[in-house]
């Protein structure tokens, strides 16, 4: 499932985030790339563990934890600390699939990437190109969202970032290990949750909504790894 999480951050919040990121030290993005990706990847990143990355990363995780759409769609078990990248002057990232296991630098912690997330931090009118192109079973999707919006997609998908031919594209990207490893099962739970919530919203007391919610939790109990 490919899903947009809109309005995670307001224009003012994005501006504040951008100011902090602009003041940080940026390095060649190949530092976090796997062997094959080194060839495909051409961008700039803030180094892992940089104080600014930590501060903004924590703000992103806190915001996500309070976002009902994200929680319902991702059913997160662990989230890799957000990283930050910037593309300009024709930079791009060729087609690749993200590494399955991410090691948290300097620790023994590992995160399995079930879902990949990109939080857009530049407005689409400020750059040309830079679309995130994702291939899934339903075809090819070109994603370019307003600043403050995020896209969530299965980490098993082939994807690339088109060359940025004018201006600069800044974003945060990270991976989520879900309590529900299988994308199909997770999508089913997300649909079920949506329907149960809609029925509950239509009626103050709805025995059917209670039963549906019960089925949701019983499936979650059956499938979740926590
Ligand atoms: Ni990627």
Helices and strands, with pairings:
Blueprint: E1 3-5, H1 11-22, E2 27-28, H2 37-40, E3 44-45, H3 51-65, H4 68-74, E4 76-79, E5 83-88, E6 93-96, E7 101-103, E8 110-112, E9 115-120, E10 127-129, E11 132-136, E12 139-143, E13 150-154, E14 158-161, E15 164-178, H5 183-202, H6 207-223
Antiparallel strand pairs: 1-13, 2-3, 3-5, 4-15, 5-15, 6-14, 7-8, 9-13, 9-15, 10-15, 11-12, 11-14
The protein binds nickel (II) ion.
Number of helices: 6
Gap from first CA to last CA: 21 Å
Average residue pLDDT: 95
Which range best describes the helical content: under 10%, 10-25%, 25-40%, 40-55%, 55-70% or over 70%?
25-40%
Kindly name the structural category: alpha+beta
Low-confidence stretches: none
Reported for the largest beta sheet, the result is: 9 strands, antiparallel
Order of helices and strands: EHEHEHHEEEEEEEEEEEEHH
Round the Cα radius of gyration to an integer and report it.
18 Å
User: How would you describe the shape?
Assistant: globular
> What percentage of the residues does DSSP assign to strands (E)?
25-35%
Ions, cofactors and other bound molecules: nickel (II) ion
Number of strands: 15
Question: What's a concise summary of this model?
Answer:
By secondary structure, this protein is an alpha+beta fold.
How would you explain this protein's 3D organization?
The protein has 226 residues and is an alpha+beta fold. 33% of the residues lie in helices and 31% in strands. The protein contains six helices and 15 strands. Strands 1, 2, 3, 4, 5, 9, 10, 13 and 15 form a nine-stranded antiparallel β-sheet that branches. A four-stranded antiparallel β-sheet has the order 6-14-11-12. It has a two-stranded antiparallel ribbon with strand order 7-8. A hairpin with a 6-residue loop joins strand 7 (101-103) and strand 8 (110-112). Helix 5 runs antiparallel to helix 6. Bound molecules: nickel (II) ion. The site of nickel (II) ion (NI) has 3 residues, from loops.
